[in-house]
Design brief:
344 residues; three-stranded antiparallel β-sheet
């Protein structure tokens, strides 16, 4: 939203957005004592470590349409690319046969490879409440569901215990999950805007592979400063909480975390309703909910977004939602992407 009073949403306005989010060298790993024999049996081997790193890119196309004043429909279709690299760190002497068993075990758990595909789409209906709390303020409330468009995998713990190749990384939950979003903005003078945001996703049933994804919540505060007629600078502080995922009712020990991050971004409103955003998100703190849990340590994340607003829009700068970009705040290696030891 532009700095200053927030305008009502005008019927017939359409916004198309293409967003790219990318991160490099998200690092993780865990201790391991198991290998796989030439016959495919799980065997004990000397202590060693699996080191895993992840580079990712997320492309998201979103469509927003105001079908009546202050009522929108939002549709988001994301595509993800994840490049995983894995290696062995020896912590105790091992024979050549044990090293071979260690390598076979790494190959079935998280081999070096590039994974890509659609993740879960989202469809929401949004209502803008203008003048919420004070003159010139607005509250956007949206409710909807995810669509199970992302690829899912079977239980990796069962496969790992049997010495079978499997995949931890999932691109979706395989279920229709309710989602809720809220964005509040209020002007502080002609060039400043402050606000808060909240998003939540609540899986409530198992998919056909016995997986139930993690409930997720993201919330934070934000401030925006308009500079001149076309440029604005925004900063936000976001907290993310991910509860446990489950496989056939059993807790996934590699899910569950909380984190805190900050983001700086710049927005340029170009001619013809075109808007360009560039941002950098930096991690501040992260903690897994279980001491034995394992996850990726996040690195810097870069966001680039271009949008075009057209139709019956009101005059003025292109609109900028005061909060995180849709799904940008989500941990790229969360409950659906975690790497860890194969034991419950």
């Amino acid at each position: 939203m532009e700095a200053g009073p927030v305008s009502p949403k005008t019927k017939g306005t359409t916004r198309l957005t293409l967003q790219t989010t990318g991160g490099l060298d998200y690092d993780g790993g865990h201790l391991e004592r198991h290998g796989v024999s030439p016959a495919g049996e799980v065997v004990d081997v000397p202590l060693h470590e699996h080191r895993v790193s992840l580079d990712f890119a997320r492309l998201e196309l979103s469509y927003e349409r105001t079908f009546r004043e202050n009522w929108d429909v939002w549709v988001r279709l994301p595509y993800e690319i994840k490049r995983r690299r894995a290696s062995i760190v020896e912590l105790a002497p091992a024979t050549p046969e044990e090293r071979a068993a260690i390598e076979r075990n790494l190959a079935i758990h998280h081999p070096t490879r590039t994974l890509e595909g659609l993740s879960d789409a989202r469809v929401l209906v949004a209502r803008r409440l203008v003048g919420a709390g004070r003159a010139g303020a607005a509250l956007d409330l949206a409710v909807g569901t995810t669509l199970p468009t992302g690829r899912t995998e079977g239980d990796p713990f069962v496969a790992g215990d049997a010495g079978l190749e499997h995949e931890h990384v999932q691109f979706g939950s395989g279920t229709f999950d309710p989602v809720l979003e809220a964005y509040y903005s209020a002007p502080l003078g002609p060039r400043w805007l402050v606000g808060g945001f909240f998003t939540g996703r609540i899986p409530f049933y198992d998919n056909d592979k016995t997986y139930r994804g993690s409930p997720e919540v993201n919330a934070g505060v934000s401030t925006l400063r308009r500079i001149g007629g076309r440029l604005s600078i925004q900063a936000n502080l976001a907290g993310y909480y991910q509860d446990f995922a489950h496989w056939d009712g059993a807790r996934d020990v590699n899910s569950g975390l909380r984190s805190l991050s900050g983001m700086l971004s710049a927005t340029v409103a170009l001619r013809g309703g075109v808007q360009l955003d560039v941002g950098l998100r930096l991690p501040i703190a992260q903690q897994t909910l279980l001491d034995g849990g394992d996850g990726f340590e996040p690195g810097p994340t870069v966001l680039v977004r271009a949008s075009h607003t057209f139709g019956a829009q009101r005059s003025g700068p292109a609109e900028h939602r005061h909060g995180p970009a849709p799904d940008e705040h989500e941990h790229p290696a969360g409950a659906e992407d975690r790497e860890g030891p194969e034991s419950r």
